[in-house]
Design a protein that fits this description.
This protein is of the alpha/beta class. It is built from eleven helices and 21 strands. It has a nine-stranded mixed β-sheet with strand order 4-3-5-6-7-8-9-14-13, with helices on both faces. The protein has a four-stranded antiparallel β-sheet with strand order 10-11-12-15, with no helix packed on it. The longest helix has 17 residues. It comes from Eubacterium segne.
Length: 414
C-alpha cells in the first residue's frame, strides 16, 4: 500500500521539522543528507528507526519540540536494556484519545457503556490510554488498574460494567474466577477489548464462551502513541488502523524490502502528525500482513491481519527455529487441552545437549498420558523436535495480571 499524496506531504513535513531540531533523528538525517521526500521511492530509501535508536537516545534525545511543549512522558513496558522514553505534546495526547475513542466506536461501544479498565497506569501507556479514549467518547470509566481481582469482581457486579479492557491473560484469569464462583448471572459484560499480547484462538474461544461477550483486539505500542492505533471490528477479519495518523508498510524482516499487500512480514510504522517524538519507518518486529480490499463492515480504514507474533520471539532448539504461535496452533488441535502452556529450555551440561520441556493443561476427562504422547508426536512431525511433555490439570499453570511469559530459556541466563 503506497503513500497517498497527503501522507507523502505529511512525511516530508515531519522530516523537515526534524532537520530543524538538534534531536537524535534530526542529526542522523543531516549526516545522511536527507532533506525530504517527494515520492514512494524516496520514502523507501529512508533509513529504518528502531528501539535500539531510542535506547541510544536515552533519555530524551528523540524529543523534537521544546521542553515547554511536552506535557507527558511514557515508557515502554520492556524489561531488557535501557527503557524507552517517549515525550508527548498536548496535541499528541489529544490525537491519541481521538484514535482510542474511534477504537471504542468501531467496537460498537457508546457513551452509555461502563468501561472497566484493568491495564496498568503510570509510565505504561495502557491504562491511561484506555481511560482517555473512554472520556473522549463520553462513556463512564471505571479505572481500577491492574490486580486486586476481588475489587474487580465487586465493581463489575455493583456498577454493572458493560465493557472489560485487559490483557488477554488477565481476561482469562477473570473469566475463570467468574465461572469458579458462579457469578456469570450477576455480571453485565457485553464486550471485551484486549491487547498487549498475542493470544491463541483457543484462549479467545475460552474467554468468549466463559463470559458470553464480543471480543475485540486493540493494537498499538508505546513508541507509536500506545494502544489505540487500530482495532478489530465486529466482522473479526482484521485490525482497522487509522491511516490519517499512521502509515503502515510490511517488509521482509531479513531483507528490509517492502512486500506486496497480502504477503506476511514485519510491520513498520511511520507517524504522520506526531509532534513530541515523530518516528519514521519504525520497525516493530510484529508479524502480520495488510489485508487487501474493503471490509464488509463498511469502514474506509485499511486493515492489518491479527498479529501472528514477533520476529524476535523466535527461539532455536536442536537447530530448529520455533515461534510460540506454532506451538499454540499445534495445541489447538489436541482435544481437551486448554490455551495455557509454557516452554522451559535449558542446557544439560552432562550430556552437552539442550532440553526442552513443554507443560500443558488438560481437562480431567482426557487421558493425560495419551494426550502427552499425542502432543509429542505432533511436535516431532510438524516442528521437527521431540520435547519432554508434562500434562497437568486445568488451572495448574500460573495466571498473570499482565502479559504471560510463555517461553523461559535458561541457556542464556547467567
Amino acid at each position: 500500500m503506497e503513500l497517498t499524496n497527503i501522507q507523502l506531504e505529511q512525511v516530508d513535513a515531519q522530516i523537515k521539522r526534524l532537520l530543524n531540531t538538534d534531536s537524535y533523528y534530526g542529526n542522523i538525517y543531516r549526516k545522511k543528507g536527507i532533506d525530504g521526500v517527494t515520492s514512494q521511492e524516496d520514502f523507501e530509501k529512508l533509513p529504518f528507526s528502531s528501539k535500539d535508536d531510542l535506547r541510544n537516545a536515552y533519555p530524551l534525545g528523540i524529543q523534537a519540540v521544546p521542553d515547554e511543549d511536552v506535557v507527558r512522558i511514557h515508557s515502554s513496558s520492556g524489561t531488557t536494556g535501557k527503557p524507552v522514553i517517549i515525550p508527548y505534546t498536548a496535541k499528541d495526547v489529544d490525537d491519541w484519545a481521538i484514535m482510542f475513542a474511534r477504537c471504542y466506536e468501531t467496537a460498537g461501544i457508546t457513551k452509555k457503556d461502563r468501561i472497566q479498565i484493568t491495564p496498568g497506569y503510570g509510565l505504561w501507556t495502557a491504562g491511561i490510554g484506555f481511560q482517555a479514549g473512554c472520556e473522549k467518547l463520553g462513556a463512564m470509566a471505571v479505572p481500577l488498574g491492574p490486580g486486586n481481582t476481588e475489587k474487580q469482581l465487586q465493581m463489575m457486579i455493583d456498577l454493572q460494567s458493560t465493557v472489560i479492557t485487559a490483557t488477554s491473560s488477565y481476561a482469562l484469569l477473570l473469566a475463570e474466577e467468574i465461572n469458579r464462583r458462579g457469578l456469570k448471572d450477576k455480571i453485565n459484560l457485553k464486550k471485551g477489548v484486549f491487547g498487549s499480547e498475542r493470544w491463541s484462538d483457543k484462549m479467545r474461544e475460552t474467554i468468549r464462551e466463559s463470559l458470553g461477550i464480543e471480543l475485540y483486539d486493540i493494537y498499538g505500542l508505546t513508541e507509536i502513541y500506545g494502544p489505540g492505533i487500530g482495532i478489530t471490528c465486529k466482522n473479526e477479519c482484521g485490525i482497522h488502523y487509522w491511516d490519517d495518523y499512521v502509515y503502515i508498510e510490511i517488509i521482509d524482516p531479513v531483507t528490509g524490502k517492502p512486500v506486496p499487500d497480502g504477503e506476511e512480514g514485519e510491520i513498520v510504522i511511520t507517524t504522520l502528525v506526531k509532534e513530541g517524538a515523530p518516528l519514521i519507518r519504525f520497525r516493530t518486529h510484529d508479524i502480520s500482513r495488510i489485508i487487501p480490499g474493503t471490509c464488509a463492515c463498511g469502514s474506509k480504514y485499511p486493515r492489518l491481519d491479527i498479529i501472528k507474533g514477533r520476529s524476535d520471539d523466535m527461539f532455536k532448539v536442536h537447530g530448529v527455529n520455533m515461534f510460540p504461535s506454532q506451538i499454540e496452533d499445534l495445541l489447538s488441535n489436541v482435544d481437551g487441552v486448554s490455551s495455557e502452556y509454557n516452554v522451559t529450555i535449558a542446557h544439560d551440561d552432562s550430556k552437552n545437549k539442550d532440553i526442552m520441556i513443554v507443560t500443558v493443561e488438560a481437562e480431567g476427562r482426557v487421558d493425560f498420558e495419551k494426550t502427552g504422547a499425542t502432543i509429542r508426536e505432533l511436535f516431532k512431525s510438524r516442528i521437527g523436535v521431540t520435547p519432554k511433555i508434562t500434562v497437568v490439570p486445568a488451572g495448574t499453570l500460573p495466571r498473570s495480571e499482565k502479559k504471560t511469559k510463555r517461553v523461559i530459556d535458561y541457556r542464556y541466563n547467567n
